[in-house]
Amino acid sequence: MAEFRVGGQAVIEGVMMRGEREWSVAVRTPDGEIVRTKQSVGSLLERYPILKKPLLRGIVSLVETLVLGVKALSYSANASLGAKDEEITAISSKEWAATFALAVVVTVGLFMLAPYYLTRFVAQGAGNRVFFAMVEGLFRITIFLGYIAVISRMKDIKRVFQYHGAEHKVINALEAGRVLTPENAAEYSTQNVRCGTSFLLIVMVLAIFTFSFLPTASVFQRVIGKILLIPVIAGVGYELFKFAARHLDSRVVKVLVWPGLTLQKLTTREPDHAQLEVAVAALQEVLPAEDMEPAKA
Question: Sign of the CA dihedral 25, 42, 204, 109?
């Protein structure tokens, strides 16, 4: 079939699907109805072709993905509470701003400060920056895995992970050329090589090598340096991510993507029929704009 151009994201009681031209969100409301919204992507990559250059396109894609993700989460949070399209007021902009600020604090604290101080405690006096970065990176990955394991026990997060699994199953069914139905999608894996979870793992591994150039004595300089290097790491990670997706027949690539696929066992769960229905509804919204009409029965 045509080159695959659709990705997705689990949201609150729903799924977001994104193509090159449009993105959509489908959400299950409290009364059992599936509501949907669809908008144009309007990517900067199309308006400014220079941004399609290697490394730049990765940075732009990451920022756009984050922005669309927040929009999708906002819609799903309100829709899952029963708010109508014209009445997206259940969660205010101030509450979203507070949530974002808290997320930044948690991210810096858990994945930058904690690994740094743990490494300083374990490897006191280590003058080798590469060794320091390796130990710090191992702590960061361990904290990340522990964080996922802990939140996965929460009821609401389990449902998000189920929708994550539904998103993958439906996309896998589309890739296989199957008719898009919950029954057909149920036959496929909850894992997908293009998942953002795999991208995160690539970024964390790249960070180990990149952060080895940063000073280790000053926590302030190290944190600022990490923040400044994030776009570079994201750009390189995006290119590696896309390369792997284009060469899945290679044995070497299969070995390299295995850790990311294994990690998805933590971030996905088997969805039920109703959740697969929502994922199918979201995907069906964006396919016409991508000239990728689903297979007919």
Answer: negative
237-to-57, 204, 231, 253 alpha-carbon distances in Å: 11, 9, 10, 14
Nearest C-alpha neighbor of 3 from the set 242, 262, 180: 242
39-71 pLDDT, tens digit each: 898 888 888 889 889 889 889 988 888 888 888
CA distances from 252 to 42, 197, 215, 258 (A): 36, 20, 34, 10
The domain spans of the chain are 7-290
Take residue 249 and report the two structure tokens written for it: 């027949």
Determine the Cα–Cα distance for residues 127 and 278; give it in Å rounded to an integer: 53
Segments in the chain below pLDDT 70: 1-4, 83-93, 95-96, 124-127, 292-297
Residue 265 in tokens:
């066992």
- Burial (CB count within 10 angstroms: exposed 0-12, middle 13-18, buried 19+), residue 223: middle
Are the C-beta atoms of 14 and 76 separated by less than 8 Å?
yes
Contacts of 38 (CB under 8 A, 6+ apart): 22, 23, 24, 25, 285, 286
